[in-house]
Amino acid sequence: MALVQLAQVGKVYRSLKGSDYVAVRDFSLDIEAGEFFCLLGTSGCGKTTVLNMVAGFETVSAGDIRIGGKPIAGPAADRGVVFQGDDSLYGWLSALGNVEFGMRMRGVPRAEREQKARHYIELVGLKNQEHKHPSELSGGMKQRIQIARVLANEPQMLLMDEPFAALDAHTRADMQRELKRICAATGKTVLFITHDIDEATILADRIGVMHAGPASKLKGIVPVTLGEAERERTHDNFVAVYRRVHELIRDEVAIALQRTH
Amino acid sequence: MHASLRSVGIYLVGFASLFLIWHVLATWVLSSVLFPTPWKVLLKAIELAQDGTLWEQSSASLARIAAGFAGGSLIGIPVGLAIGSFPIVRRLLEPYTEFLRFIPATALITVAVIWFGIGEGSKIFLIIYTTVFIVIINTAAGVSAVAPNKIRAARSLGAGPAQVFFFVALPATVPYILTGMRLAMANSFVTIVAAELVAANNGLGRMIWDSRMYMLVDQIFVALLVLGLLGFTADRLFRWGIYAFAGRFSPVT
Lengths: 261, 253
Prior knowledge:
Chain A has helices at 47-55, 95-105, 110-123, 139-152, 169-186, 197-203, 236-260, and strands at residues 4-13, 21-31, 36-40, 62-67, 70-71, 79-82, 157-161, 189-194, 206-210, 218-223. Chain A is an alpha/beta fold. Chain A has 2 domains: 4-78 and 157-260, Rossmann fold, CATH 3.40.50; 86-154, no CATH class. In chain A, β4 and β5 form a beta hairpin. Chain A is globular. At the A-B interface, β6 and α2 of A face α7 and α8 of B.
């Protein structure tokens, strides 16, 4: 049984003026345990809506979402979320305090949670930065703290909503490599949202491409069976995957552009 | 360090210029017994300080401000938190906050004196009144301004609703609470003088009123100067306190 099961999921935003907006319709997807799944789509296609529903931030209007066979009921510690911006970090806490936060809420004893937090801070490459506050850290470091904060809470899966979109190109490439390494080390299941084909091809075991919104669902899934050495932008096999994904999304980009203009 | 010394220097020059302009105006432009020079005011201040008047009057005013400000903040913070957290409370209390905050404390002086008498009660009531709404409104605004992702992150890290409130919403609101308290402090200084002008046995406002009757203009100026200084010092102390004890929450930085 797949760890995450989305079955005919739909999401309708009710509008006071009576014109309801159907963001997602009939969206079905299974994600296996230990899998790195990238959900790719144009802006406004509803990919963040899907993630928010899996996270439990938003309710489903139709269908159901199951984690380990159980329907989800709101946000919970089994699904850790990494957000795009840094506004989810707690500015009044140090890096260590942020990473410890989930364990503190769950009543993990101080010594144990500090040891674990230090371990994950080291894992994300921020050793000796524990006592800095978010305002003293760069954009890339803040995203590392977010990742460490989620990992330290030891969730069943990670939900990442374009976590590197706000970073500069070099930092982003660096973070993608790091995330790949961390996922290999921890074997976490990941649902990763992005609009960047490169990023998806570097990271994913499978790439799901969404239709342009509204009433969006999956258009197709591209498996990525690239070895570590092949995950380079210039490698032939990388380019082949890129091309397949690009062919799927090309028309959707055109549709999305038409709708916004 | 060099840069901060420089900025302190410029600051002092700014202050000195205030007294210089005052001196020029009083000596050459508006030369009149009704507009004393800074030097004359300073001499008067020393005299009043030596005979104890100045201390007695300022401490009377300050004690009222301190009591009212503390009371107003103690009421305002929890009420503001409740308004910001629960839409029901907001709807229930908004008529109070939105209506009462437009009635200036100075307009309530006579009512306060009728209700609470000429003693401390009426003054403290007025300071509470002038403090409480600013603190409530800022606190409530702070709660609604907490980034939704902070709360979402906490929920998906395993925090329950009460934990979200105490460990996320409350600390995230502290800068707004402190800003509200700072503004309220400034208001307290305005209100206390007005209240003491109308009805009080002592205090700086009373000192101004009494001086008027005997045309002691320099004494009025001493009171004005002390009010400015006390307000300024209180505000700086407040800012300093924020830096020292809650630097991470500082609304200033």
